[in-house]
Amino acid sequence: xxxxIQKLSIYLRDWINYFGIANQYQQTVELDGWIRCRxxxxxxxxxxxxxxxxxxxxxxxxxxxxxxxxxxxSKSYWRNAKTPCINKGLxxxxxxxxxxYSLRDGWIKYHYG
Length: 113
What we know:
Elements: H1 2-19, H2 25-47, H3 50-59, H4 64-71, H5 77-81, H6 84-89, H7 92-97, H8 103-112
Helix pairs in contact: 1-8, 2-8, 3-4
């Protein structure tokens, strides 16, 4: 996932440099949220087995009962990526620590920084 996130961050930086001139703040925020959700889905899909999902969520600071409920869920990957449990574990701070570039922050820096 590190390599995927690095490549995506490079692409997003270039994208905001090209399209950042537009006054489309709300669409940038929505796209940024969609990208983070998509990355959460990729993590969830990569973990595959319920035992791994539960263990990884607990390692990310999710309480045991919530991690078990999320790990044993039979929802689709995309729907699971939107749940509060996974949003908390794989939140914006975690993804930024992994190296994900934020379109929202890039747009703000482009216009006000």
